[in-house]
Design brief:
single chain; Porin; 14-stranded antiparallel β-barrel
């Protein structure tokens, strides 16, 4: 307990110092707030290679990822024009693949339904499709964003002691404008306002709901909430550079002042994140290792493991890269191929789709196809 408290105190003090540059005061303690949003402390959007590398992107994000990870990263780098890009990532869980396999092997409709339910209770099903389109320069970044997330998992002993299915979906679309500038060779700052249209489904289906399809669909429909709002992130990066070795410390404040939405959508809470990154490099190759600690003041009441992201990226001649890390306590890995204007990112990571401690973690496989001009 003492070590955990000391680590918290060191990171909290570090982030206070970083945000002191912007004149932003951190709260002394978290205040009870509405935490029913399915979006917690995890980033709104991450580049696929960053996901494969443990998800630590506050000190070095890949390509379009800087717009969402830390706006103060935008002015760091070579050249004024960076890229005009388009990316589409499709991710699926091991449970979803098992459902497809089971359905293909089934011979009757009743067998298909039975096998699907059995697989959902064994391993959660998850689907995600995320797209980003925009441009990035050394001063500003612009992105159109859409992300559709859907998960369903079974619990043999639900809230009333009987089997039930949890159905969750948090999807959003919007436009992001990020801007950053350097104040010295050591310091950069940035801001990232976003317009977000947000939808959420969060419900459970009982045995009765499953036996009556219309009743179950109505329950899902009635749980849908939607709304729009303006979110703002602030970022600060401190950097010490030498010919072959760089050190970066980053502080990011997401959802400044809390992001509230129209309608009955729950808010996204103001959160503070800190990152530390080390890079060995020459003119064309680099090895970057980093660790991120998200939601330092714990406004979302998540366990420590879900707020830790760490990993390394090995970039070779800017044409191929490999990543490995520990994302939320589980391993992740993947690679990137740059083929002229085309770009392919693929990998896997593991996550727990539920706050329920008894639910097994799910392996997620993803593929990103994109271009950069």
């Amino acid at each position: 307990m003492g070590l955990k408290y000391n680590n918290y105190f060191v990171l909290y003090s570090l982030l206070q110092s970083v945000f002191g540059v912007l004149g932003v005061t951190m709260p002394q303690q978290s205040i009870a707030q509405n935490t029913s949003s399915l979006k917690k402390s995890a980033p709104l959007y991450q580049n696929g290679f960053d996901l494969a590398s443990g998800g630590a992107s506050l000190t070095r994000a890949t390509q379009e990822g800087v717009i969402f990870a830390n706006p103060s990263l935008i002015p760091i780098g070579e050249g004024i024009w960076r890229s005009f890009y388009g990316k589409n990532t499709f991710a699926v869980s091991e449970g979803s693949l098992n459902i497809v396999k089971s359905a293909l092997e089934s011979t009757t409709g009743s067998t298909i339904a039975s096998n699907i339910l059995q697989n959902i209770f064994d391993k959660p099903a998850y689907l995600n499709n995320a797209s980003a389109l925009g441009l990035l320069t050394s001063y500003v970044g612009v992105a159109g964003l859409s992300s559709v997330n859907f998960s369903i998992y079974g619990e043999k002993f639900g809230s009333i002691g009987l089997p039930e299915l949890s159905v969750k979906s948090n999807s959003y679309a919007g436009v992001v404008l990020s801007a950053g500038t350097t104040l010295s060779d050591y310091l950069s700052i940035g801001i990232s306002p976003k317009y977000i249209y947000n939808t959420q489904i969060d419900t459970t289906l009982s045995v009765g709901d499953l036996s009556d399809l219309k009743q179950g669909l109505n329950k899902i429909k009635n749980s849908l909430t939607q709304g729009n709002g303006i979110a703002t992130d602030l970022g600060v990066t401190l950097q010490l550079r030498s010919k072959h070795f760089d050190v970066r410390v980053a502080g990011v404040l997401t959802d400044f002042g809390n992001t509230t939405f129209s309608g009955s959508m729950p808010p996204w809470l103001q959160t503070y994140h800190a990152g530390l990154g080390l890079t060995l490099h020459d003119n064309s190759n680099a090895l970057h290792c980093a660790v991120d600690y998200r939601d330092i003041t714990n406004v979302y009441n998540e366990p420590l493991s879900k707020k830790m992201y760490m990993g390394c990226k090995l970039i070779i001649a800017k044409w191929v890269a490999f990543g490995y890390g520990m994302r939320q306590g589980w391993p992740s890995y993947g690679m990137v191929l740059n083929l002229f204007v085309a770009r392919i990112e693929a990998g896997t990571y593991t996550t727990n789709l539920s706050a329920s401690p008894g639910l097994p973690p799910s392996a997620i496989y993803f593929l990103t196809l994109g271009y950069e001009l």
